[in-house]
Each structure stands twice: as structure tokens, then as C-alpha cells.
Write a sequence for this structure.
């Protein structure tokens, strides 16, 4: 496995397959994808992109204890490569980058079924279940780094 920084457009096929199936590919573009302080990581297996995650310098209005925050968004792994540690490797690579940018808090809207994974890598639930329109139930989760 190899983790590399990737172009935001490289995330689209996995985002589309795993997070936006049946919807237009345009829904895979997230606001801020091409911002200067946004970065995208990909985990490769045998030179094939198998997992992606995006990190946006964006503060959540409900989280006030840190002025600067990164949002983790669009983390997804192809089915054939799930449960192989790829998402964990993406986060392990991302956290030092975020810390080097003088940011100490990462937040995400975690799908309810993925909340257990996020807890294993140090995120904590910061909300009750939230319903995100057209996407489903999530928790707001945070991690201090």
C-alpha cells in the first residue's frame, strides 16, 4: 500500500461509486475541492487507487474551542479493499499535515454505520444523529490532534 497526495478530480470515481451511486458525477465535486489549503489523499494497492479522503480548512459553527479546523470529507474505499487499513493509513498520513498547518482539530460528518471506525482512530461523537438530506443519518465527530 502506498499513500499519496492526489488531485481532487482523482477522488471522483471512488466518491461516485461509494458515496453518490446513481447520482450524477457532478455531485462528487465538493465546494472547496480546489482551494489552496484543501488536500486530497489516495491509498494505492498495486498502483490502483483504492481509497480516498479529502481535507478542507473549514470550521464547524458548533465547534468553538478551536479557531482553525479541518473537515474530513469524502473518505471512501472500494469494496474489494475495505477492512485492509487503507482509511487508517490515509488518516495517519493526514494528521501530521494538518498539525503542520497549525490546526489541532479535525471534524467530520460520519455515517452512522462508520462511527465505530472513527472512534477507533480517536474521533468522538459531538452530536446526536443528524439527518443529512439525500445522504442519510450521520454523527458530527471530532478529533483533537
Amino acid at each position: 500500500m502506498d499513500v499519496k497526495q492526489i488531485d481532487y478530480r482523482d477522488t471522483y470515481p471512488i466518491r461516485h461509486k461509494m458515496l453518490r451511486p446513481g447520482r450524477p458525477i457532478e455531485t462528487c465535486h465538493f465546494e472547496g475541492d480546489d482551494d489552496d489549503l484543501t488536500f486530497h489523499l489516495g491509498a494505492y494497492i498495486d498502483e490502483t487507487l483504492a481509497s480516498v479522503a479529502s481535507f478542507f480548512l473549514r470550521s464547524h459553527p458548533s465547534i468553538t474551542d478551536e479557531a482553525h479546523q479541518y473537515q474530513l470529507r469524502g473518505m471512501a474505499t472500494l469494496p474489494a479493499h475495505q477492512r485492509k487499513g487503507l482509511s487508517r493509513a490515509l488518516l495517519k498520513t493526514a494528521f501530521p499535515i494538518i498539525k503542520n498547518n497549525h490546526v489541532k482539530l479535525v471534524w467530520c460528518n460520519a455515517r452512522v454505520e462508520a462511527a465505530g471506525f472513527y472512534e477507533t482512530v480517536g474521533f468522538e461523537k459531538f452530536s446526536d444523529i443528524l439527518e443529512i438530506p439525500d445522504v442519510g443519518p450521520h454523527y458530527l465527530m471530532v478529533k483533537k490532534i
